[in-house]
Design a protein that fits this description.
By secondary structure, this protein is of the alpha/beta class. The chain has one domain: Ribosomal protein L13 (Ribosomal Protein L13p, Chain: A, Alpha-Beta Complex), CATH 3.90.1180.10. The chain contains 4 helices and 6 strands, in the order βαβαββααββ. Strands 5-2-1-6 form a 4-stranded parallel beta sheet, with helices on one face. A two-stranded antiparallel ribbon has the order 3-4.
Length: 148
């Protein structure tokens, strides 16, 4: 028996909408990364993009547990000496919550051309409005954070 490898013509992509209201950042991002990679499908192959499109709404209402928002730092490095810039998750969530989610999901995807292709299927919006209703997306429900 030979190993099955999906072809590009066999891949069907769905659209998923996730409401991030009161969800924990890390738990949300692991599920989003799983959907973007296509690991929930029986035709998953690690070398081919078999994933779906994901739309996240209410990104500004995401939470972090146990005071991590004030304690954990987000780093950017320009490549030059002294070019390290650090800010807390609390500042990043206030400034641009969609970018915090996008960065967290990006770290959970492959670091190469395949990961860059997969992250393009992620759309993050701070409010409840999104322009992707024409794709007839499926709304997914996750359990909200209970302990903070």
């Amino acid at each position: 028996m030979t190993t099955y490898s999906p072809k590009a013509s066999e891949i069907t992509r769905e659209w998923h909408v996730i409401d991030a209201d009161n969800l924990v950042l890390g738990r949300l991002c692991t599920e989003v990364a799983r959907l973007l990679r296509g690991k929930h499908k029986p035709i998953f192959a690690p070398h081919i993009d078999t994933g779906d499109h994901v739309v996240i709404i209410n990104a500004s209402k995401i939470v972090l547990t146990k005071g991590k928002a004030a304690a954990k730092g987000v780093h950017r490095y320009s490549g030059y000496p002294g070019g390290l810039k650090t800010e807390t998750y609390q500042n990043l969530l206030e400034r641009d919550a969609a970018e915090a989610i996008r960065r967290s999901v990006r770290g959970m995807l492959p670091h190469g051309p395949l990961g860059r292709q997969q992250i393009k299927k992620l759309k993050v919006y701070a409010g409840a409005e999104h322009p992707h209703s024409a794709q007839n997306p499926v709304t997914l429900k996750f359990a909200a954070a209970t302990a903070r």
